[in-house]
Every structure is written in structure tokens, then in C-alpha cells.
Amino acid sequence: MRLLREIFFAAVLCAAASSNGAEAQNVFVAANKNSAKSANLAKEYCAMRGIPPENIIMLDAPKTADISRQGYDLKIARPIFAFLKSRGKIKDIFGADDPKKSMVVKSDVDCLVLCKDVPFRIAEENPDPEKKPNASTNNSACVDSELALLLKGSYNLQGAQKNTLFGVGRQKGEYKKQNFLAVSRLDGASFEDALNIAKSAKIAEEKGLRGRAYIDMSQKYPAGDKWLEGAKEILERMGFDLSSDSRPQLMNYFCRFDCPAFYFGWYTNIPRYYQADCRYADGASTLHIYSFSAITLTRKTDWTPSFAAQNSAAAFGYINEPFLHATHRPDVYMHYIERGFDAAEAAFYAMPAFSWKGIFLADAMYCPMKKTLEGQIADIESGNADEYSQYSIIRKMNLMLREGKSPEDAEAFAQKLLPYLPQKFALKWRMAQLLQNSEPERAVLLAKEAANEAKKDFQNLGLLFEIAAFFKGKNLEEESARLCLETINSTGNKDFLQNTIPALLKTEKFSEEEKSGLQKLLPPPKK
Questions:
Q1: Phi-psi category of 463—alpha, beta or left, where left has phi over 0 and alpha has psi -120 to 50?
Q2: What is the DSSP string of 472-513?
Q3: pLDDT in tens, 191-234
């Protein structure tokens, strides 16, 4: 009877848990004491976010990506469990040292953050070395995904374990009531990349999440494309300007990719496009559904570390084959982001299973929608605009259109704020799109101004191709060819040239002299 009373009392306490997202005093940060850089990363992150330094858990773990099952239990799981108990953040009525033998009835842990140099892959334990492990029932896992179940007592280690709150969390902090841990990680190809995840998040919270959304479907499996379509609908409802590509191939250099605040795509193993020159918007959320996107966190040719290196604040990935049904759902993630949840909690509810292959690089305290759109517009009106402010205005215009306002009303709103902006190319292009039917001549003029202003940045070259296609649709073929030629001549990126010039030679009306010049720009064929 006493045991039942304790469980009931703990449930009442959990029901009264904070609903305001992660709080600094309830965020715990695990670093590797055998790595000075890992320890420094934990200290810098805590200082940045106001997390008490005594919330840092120093683990005596190997400085390797992989750790054995036994090593995970002894070097990671047990020390973290003991630390949280010693701080009174969890209540285990059995008083166990081994979390597998515990019965936790109360948790006040908002999130656990793992720092670079803490192992992230639990190696497969195969009792029969001559027998290949079953891909769907093996006991290898991501350390982060395993720790999500740290407070759940004993559970089956074979295969993925169901997340009972997948897509059904109703209020902030609900995962604590079922003794789950929300886990995120600061990691990447360098310690600078790892810390920058938090810096990117903090800037977005202070200034607002500004930018565009990009959805890259595949036409390989309907389920994955359906999820991406669901994320697209939410992003459009939120007013984010959006580009969607439904071809089987990866988005290419002809696709617009300026200021990406959201990128959700799938089915390509290498993030080739814009890889060397891409920078995501401060606070960006990035997911490419690929089985081995985080098989390492040090190679920038892998999706997840690439995202971190390019300024993403919330990057998903997989350390090995998760199978599609056990990958993060971008539509579920966006469902919670739209409702103001922290990214780490949204990612938790978007993951169908734990003790499996998923990983999430993010600042545990990052709330993407913390700064409202109204607040962003107010900053512009008070003279505090920067190069990304134009995307706030575009988002407001899109919402005006969804509310039934006319394109002219939206364009008039933008006109009032143009003088405040240091960069205007994306906004002028959006204005041109709105006016192309009612005021075609003015639309062309705005498009030309947008193109002239956008030429300085390699990441804007896809936008220039989009404007060139607009000119072609208006029977301005010479203008289209001229802009394409200027776009090609503005960069020496060999991959870009190799993948754009042959197509342009077939579609644009260049002079013979121009064609010859373009041919000379093509890199020599590989031997």
C-alpha cells in the first residue's frame, strides 16, 4: 500500500511539472573528463545558457565514437543515473545503483545534453561471431537514443523500443510523466561546430527565426514523401516562404537555396549541393532521411555533421540503418514547433522509437518560435533590421495572403518597410511575384533589382536562375540568357559549373562567342 501511495504522490507531482519548456536548473550536461575540450564545451554552453555549472556530469569514458554495451552501462548510464539521483532530480523507490533495477516514480529532468567526445555509438554484441546480426533486431544503438530510456528500468535490448508518446504529447514536459529523458547533443566535425549549434539557437531566439523552408522529396517511397508533404503544409500555414522539389534527384544548383531556416529532404547519401558554400539561417532545423547520415560526426561529407558545420541549430541523423518507420517524422516535429515547443522536446515526440539509431544535435533549451513574428516586425520598424529581416516581411506578406488580403495589400505592406532594410533582394523578388499579373512591367523591374542585389553571394545563385526563368516566361529571353551568363561567371565553383553549364547551353539563347566562353569554363573530364 505504501508503494502505491508513493507512486500516486509522484504522479501528482509530475502532473504539476512546468509547462514552460526546458528550464536551466533542470538541464544537465554530460562531458568526458578525459577530454579537456569536452569539459570546456560543457562549461561554455552552461555559461551561455545560464545552466548551473554544478549540473555538469563528468564521465570517465573513452574518447571514441564507439563503446561496448558493458562500457555504456558502467561508464555512461550508471554515472548519469547516480548523478541525477544525488541531485534529487529523479526519485527511485528501489534505491538501485543499476538503472535497469530501478523504479523511477518522479523526474524533474528537462533535458540531458551530451558533449562532443562522449561516445555516441553502442557496438553490437553478437553472441555468434559467425552469424551476421539481424538488421532489425540487433542490440546496437545510439548512446543518445539509449539514454532516452535511462529511467524506464529494465527493457528489451533487441531492436527498437516504442516511444509511447510519439506524436501524442499534449503539453510541454509530458515526457517526464512517463519517465522518459529528452536527450540532445552538442557535436560535429569540430568543437567550434558543436558550440556554434548553441550560438545559432541563441541568436534565433533573440532576433527571431528568419528564412525560408526547403522540402526535397524523392518519389521513392510514398510514406516518406507524405511526411514531407505534411511538414510543408505546416510551414506554409506558418507563413514561411517555401520551395519544394518533388523529383527523385537531390535538389540541384538550379533550385533556390537562400537563407534556409528549415530543410527536410531524403534519399541521397552525400550532401553535394552547396556543400562548401552553404550556410543555414541562425536557428535552422535540418533533416535528411538517410540511414547513415550520422554514421560519423567528424566527416563533413556526411549529412548531420555537415548541417552542424553550416550553422544549423537542430540537426537530425542516424548512426546506422534505422528503417524508415523508425526515423524522425518531420511533420510531427513541425506540429510541435508550430505550437511553441522547444526543439529537443519536439524531436522527442517526433521519434517513433528509442534504444535505436537516431541522434539529435541541438541546444536543449532552443525554442525556435520564442521571438514572435510581430516582435520581428517591430524590430524592423524601430530601426533594428539586419540582412535577414527581409524574410520576416516575406513571412508576414504570406500570412496576409492566407488571411484573404490581396497581393497589392501585401506588396504595399512591404513597400513601407523597404527603407529599413540593409538587404532587399529576396523581398523584391517576392514583390515581383505578387505583381506579375496585375503590374507586369513593375514586376520585371523589381525582378531586375532583386537579381542585381543578389549576385554577391554564391548561395543566392539558385534564386538568380529562378528569376531568369521568370524572364523567360515573360518572353525576355535575352534578359534570361544575360542573367544566366552573369550567374555562371560569378563563381569558380567547379561542381556548380559542371552541373549547370551543359543544361544552360541547351536551354538559353547564347551567342556563339558566349557558348565558346562557357565551354572553356567547364572543368576537364575526370580521367
A1: alpha
A2: HHTT-HHHHHHHHHHHHHT---HHHHHHHHHHHHHHS---HH
A3: 999 999 999 999 999 999 999 999 999 888 899 999 999 999 99
Q: Domain residues of the chain, as ranges?
A: 2-362, 373-521
Closest by CA to 105, choosing from 114, 94, 92, is 92
The CA angle 184-188-194, to the nearest 5 degrees, is 65
Nearest 5°: CA angle at 97, between 93 and 98? 100
Contact 80, 102 (CB under 8 A): no
Architecture of domain 373-521: Alpha Horseshoe (1.25)
Taking CA 511 as the corner, what is the angle to CA 508 and CA 517, rounded to the nearest 5 degrees? 95
513 compared with 526, residue with greater pLDDT = 513
Evaluate if pTM is beyond 0.90: yes
Alpha-carbon dihedral 126, 127, 133, 135, rounded to 10 degrees? -80
Q: What share of the chain is helix, strand, coil (3-state, %, to 5)?
A: 45, 15, 40
Instruction: Report whether pLDDT(73) > 90.
Output: yes
C-alpha torsion sign, points 388, 293, 304, 172: positive
C-alpha cell of 479? 534578359
Which residues have CB under 8 Å from 78's CB, separation 6+? 97, 98, 99
Q: What is d(CA 211, CA 243) in angstroms, rounded to the nearest whole number?
A: 12
Which cell is 92 given? 527511485
- Separation CA 265–CA 473 (nearest Å): 28
Starting at the edge strand found earlier in the chain, the sheet holding 121-122 runs 66-67, 121-122, 141-142
What's the Cα-to-Cα distance from 510 to each of 471, 494, 519, rounded to whole Å?
15, 21, 12
Q: What is the pLDDT of residues 5-25, one digit of tens each?
A: 333 333 333 333 334 688 999
Whose cell is 569554363? That residue is 521
